[in-house]
Amino acid sequence: MTTLARRPDTLTRDALTVLQPGFPGTTAPDWLLRRLGEGLASVGLFGRNIASPAQLSALTAQLRAERDDVLVAIDEEGGDVTRLEVRTGSSVPGNHALGAIDDVRLTREVAQELGHRLRTCGVNLNWAPSADVNSNPANPVIGVRSFGADPELVARHTAAYVTGLQSAGVAACTKHFPGHGDTSVDSHHALPRIDASRAVVLDRELAPFRAAIAAGTRAVMSAHILIPALDPDRPATLSHPVLTDLLRGELGYTGLIVTDGMEMQAIAGTYGIERGSVLAIAAGADAICVGGGLKDDETVRSLRDALIEAVRTGELPEERLADAAERVRTLARWAAAPPQSADSGKAPTDVGLTAARRALKATHATPYEPLREPPYVAAFTPVANFAVGNETPWGVAAELARLLPGTRTGTHTGETAAETALTEAGESRIVAVVRDEHRHPWMKTALDTLLAARPDTIVVEMGVPQSPPRGALHLATHGAARVCGQAAAEFIAGE
Asked: What pLDDT, on a 0 to 100 scale, did the predictor assign at position 347?
């Protein structure tokens, strides 16, 4: 049994310090403020916590009134995964659009703009960027969240993103180590497995993380994935060979290691949240992310108690927990300092729209004549992955309605999608909007049917453009951010 050389109240504070819990509502609940006074050092925000920039600023001020160095984290990737603009769609494109442009200066500027917006609202830790190499086109959870399928491209844009974000005073949390791109299972629902060789993993998956570390990323988020070539027994989040031997040892990383959400079924459905959290800290993680949808105060209390009990029984060395807590405090001190950028108070820019326009790729066999009459927009809608969520609007209909008043729209899915779209469209020109057509057989069939009946249909692909371009005009936006839809609508209408 480990000898407790430090006071029990210090042990309790350390156990609270390593937790990054979420909470419901747009103001801080009493239990959360109380836990901040007891030692909790981090809070995680999601779309459910945000109504407006002013409200978010008031919320973070409320947290800092209780603890002035609190780490306020958010999952704001831009593009498809947005929390700041969860109800409107993002005004900056995501990673895939930036990778398609392949201008590292622009990527840095977009990340810096996003960082300014977060810092202005009191957020100082962003669980981004995604450094995953999208090597598996069937990946159900990464897709447009990745800069692309080429490791070197992903590496240079990951580094640029980290630099831009942190220049605005917001800590980057590069994810999902050691790489979630070659999975065919969403870790929100089950435990993915990657059977690539160690050589492939080290060469392909780790290149972006090496670049992020060289760029000074302040945090790295672990993935809930099993890679037998690295550890045949435990997923990366719970693996000493992955987090300590590889990330700390071979890659020389010294910053904070954060787990992905422990409520995800890859962990909660296998090890359980409490057991998983103990194993994660023992393996080398420093902060436990428990995102939301849970009985939050009860979860915080149970995780705190599980960590304390693991120290008392000797399963978790007290020194390991103390080291983890100190890494959290070190990041909190960095995040509390003024940002590097001299223009941190500048007004928002339209760099996001500029990037979305540059990312747009148009393919047409004959010269394209812009639409002058309002079309019918047929949105072929797949089920959104958990990270993206269903709350965030996407598509081109709203922007086309602004440019071409009278535009009508319908949402279609499944085997009858094409027939219902054709019926509802009537004589109107059809704009078919798809997302990852290559991953959804019903969507491919619907497009085949639609184009056979109406070959003048315009196709807008807002996912990863793996399928061959089709239609009188094919637009690849490389993402479904609001600005991506705006860029496509402008092209369609000739603006």
From this structure: 66
Identify the band that residue 4 occupies on the pLDDT scale cut at 50, 70 and 90: very low
Whether 386 shows a pLDDT value over 50: the answer reads no
Give catalytic residues, as residue numbers.
Answer: 188, 260
In the numeric block, the tokens 């059977």 are attached to 195
DSSP 209-256: HHHHHHTT-SEEEE---B-TTT-SSS-GGG-HIIIIIIIIIIS---SE
- DSSP structure string for 108-119: HHHHHHHHHHHH
Longest CA–CA span in the chain (Å) reads: 80
Q: What is the distance between the alpha carbons of residues 314 and 296, in angstroms, rounded to a whole number?
A: 27
Question: Which ranges of 39-181 does DSSP label H, i.e. alpha helix?
Answer: 53-66, 95-101, 104-120, 151-167
DSSP 344-369: TTPPP-SHHHHHHHHH-EEE-SSPPP
Against a cut of 0.70, is the pTM above it?
Answer: yes
Quote the CA–CA distance of 387 and 127 in Å, as a whole number.
Answer: 12
**Dist CA 309 CA 263 (whole Å):** 20
Is it the case that residue 40 has pLDDT exceeding 90?
yes
